[in-house]
Amino acid sequence: MNATVTPSVAKQPVSLIVNNMPETVHVTPRTTLAEILRDHLDLTGTHLGCEQGVCGACTVMVDGRPERACLTFAVSCEGAAVETVEGFKGDDLMDRLRAAFHRNHALQCGFCTPGMLATARDLVERLDTADEVRIRNELSGNLCRCTGYVGIVNSIMQVIEERRACGLPCTGTPRLDRAPPTGFAPFDADIFKQPSAPAVSSGTMTVENGWSVVKREVAINHSSDTVWAHFSDLDAVAACLPGAKLAQHDDSTFEGHISVAFGPIAAKFEGEGTYKTDDSTRIGTVSGRGKDRGGQSAVEGELSYTVRRAQGNPDASVVDVGFRFRIQGILGQFNRPELVNGFVDYILGEFVANCDSVLSGGELRYNKGISAFTMIRVIIAGKLRALFQRS
Amino acid sequence: MKPVPFSHNIADTLQLASKALNTDGSKIIAGGQSIGPMLNLRLVRPTTLIGVTRLEELQKIHIIGDTLSIGAAVTHARIEDGIDGVDLPPMMRHVARSIAYRAVRNKGTLGGSLAHADPAADWVTTMTALDAQLVIRDARGKSRREPMASFMRGAYRTGLQQDECITAVEMPVAMGQALWGYDKICRKVGEFADAIGAIVIHPDLKYARVVVGATEDAPLLLPDMAREIARTATAPSLGDIDSTLATYLPGASRVKRQLLKTALSRAIAKVIPS
Ligand SMILES: Cc1cc2nc3c(=O)[nH]c(=O)nc-3n(C[C@H](O)[C@H](O)[C@H](O)COP(=O)(O)OP(=O)(O)OC[C@H]3O[C@@H](n4cnc5c(N)ncnc54)[C@H](O)[C@@H]3O)c2cc1C
Ligand code: FES
Ligand code: FES
């Protein structure tokens, strides 16, 4: 491991071999292999499409195997041997592929071609025989908007045949053959029971015109007078909300931020809003909007809560919570109710636990940020999945 | 987009890797095939990345007694190719081939996939079906084991602590002889699943497990169905599968249930002739 543990984000030398030439570039660790090639070595044949690993345009050979140059960071390139479309000099299979692509009209605009050739070369080398279905499956990781793939598939099939005709062996392992199902003699199995899942929350989550609408009923073990006193004090409410911080407020407006830090993902929404509380009905409403600068997303929403006495127990109360919000930008893929539900219940759980604790004269459990099951990661799940699915 | 600035250390001992993990904002990177897109989208903003793929311990595939141990940093491609001199369960080799694309498989790792805990990922369901255990090590060097069937707590939630690293995945060597079926439904080859069905039966071990995956939650075991399949050696009817799914997943949409039903019945048909 590098001698220092303190973050060093300064440029550092990275030495690698590109198209058989030793190169040293000075780059920051966040620089991707694609950028090293394009911006530092002027090898602009490596194209960038999605920067998500989906389109395959950036595919290059690293130590003889295709990899996504958009998902490889500088430090891990140290010592690597990289072959790009500008290289492959004297490479028999690549020469044959280039000729075949030319012959079969396997490219039009050429955007996908550098990545396509890297993948094609890998296939020609690995596949024993030219199996069209298999080739088409394998090519699903390289998107071509122009050709319809026919020429590309034919080129690969032809070069596989040429390789076989020359007596060159393939390097891949054979496919696993599957025997037809045989069945088995009945037996009594020792069955493992999964630990039971947490209780399903009481409440709903719907999506209406792009707004997510969440309704929940929350029980708090204190009298409704105490709970309302707490809930009508913005400072007290903010203190109990995981990740929230009030910068300033007057009788009806506030500024502040809410941080969400979940596993690897972090977002900090900064913004402002208005609030009002009505002592006679014990209804509070908060509305606000905020921006996550680093992640370039925006959120806006309205929260309302009604505090009432729990039936049959004067020392307990029930809070009806209604929350309407929408998120735009990268984090905006927020319309998967089953995921939002889990997140909302997590936050509410933390919030209620904090309220309970404070109202009992105890301490806040913590207010560092939302650190377990959370929205952001969950949204990303949706976002990334959507990206993969769209392609 | 460019990721936020971070420092990036390649760990060459596990102790140093775990120590570095104890600092705020630090994050393991294995193959980078899941965290990479998130970095590029700035959804993840770490201060430090700690690369673990060069750790020898995480690269090993070996058999100790009757336990097969696969290092956490073994790539999907290595499992697909199965050329490490140790026989892997055929189910693993089959599943590996259906993950993403070769360029992604060349870098993405078994441990990274389990730690990431995407409900639609292939290994989380497969490893649950095969009764795998994770070997997890913390910063003080203490190792613990957690069964895959409870390790994943929900979508993107696991039993991992901040300073913990998955070092290996273990299962009984005998799982290599199990009868198995796996079916993944997705719109385009190589992408995340819309539905996964998996079954593993091993009469000698008295083992039967039926799992559905890509449910937006941790892979779901269907213990009663597994017991019944073992007891009768016949496949449940589509109607039985449907009513079981309706009981376990009351909130699932009709489309999701139909997909899961189809995937599971196809998986079962690979074990029990019709
Ligand atoms: C285009 C594309 C398509 C894909 N399709 C599929 C698919 O069809 N099926 C599928 O299952 N997957 C799919 N994936 C995901 C792929 O399999 C990833 O490789 C895998 O999920 C993550 O492994 P990784 O080694 O790349 O982990 P990384 O991205 O490096 O890390 C992922 C997470 O795990 C943590 N982590 C990594 N290693 C460890 C460890 N040893 N201990 C503790 N924490 C660790 C990291 O901190 C990070 O939070 C796809 C990915 C891409 C880019
Ligand atoms: S740019 Fe790398 S895969 Fe699309
Ligand atoms: S030739 Fe235009 S994208 Fe493939």
Automatic annotation (TrEMBL), chain A:
Pfam families: COXG, Fer2, Fer2_2. It comes from the Bacteria. The keyword Oxidoreductase applies. One of its GO terms (molecular function) is metal ion binding. Its EC number is 1.17.5.2. The keyword Nucleotidyltransferase does not apply. Keywords: 2Fe-2S, Iron, Iron-sulfur, Metal-binding, Oxidoreductase. Residues 12-88 form the 2Fe-2S ferredoxin-type domain. PANTHER family: OXIDOREDUCTASE WITH IRON-SULFUR SUBUNIT, XANTHINE DEHYDROGENASE IRON-SULFUR-BINDING SUBUNIT XDHC-RELATED. This is Caffeine dehydrogenase subunit gamma. It comes from Yoonia vestfoldensis.
From TrEMBL, chain B:
Gene3D superfamilies: 3.30.465.10, Uridine Diphospho-n-acetylenolpyruvylglucosamine Reductase, domain 2. GO terms for molecular function: caffeine oxidase activity; FAD binding. The keyword Flavoprotein applies. Residues 1-176 form the FAD-binding PCMH-type domain. This is Caffeine dehydrogenase subunit beta. The keyword Nucleus does not apply. The lineage of its organism: Bacteria, Pseudomonadati, Pseudomonadota, Alphaproteobacteria, Rhodobacterales. Its EC number is 1.17.5.2. Keywords: FAD, Flavoprotein, Oxidoreductase. It holds the Pfam family FAD_binding_5.
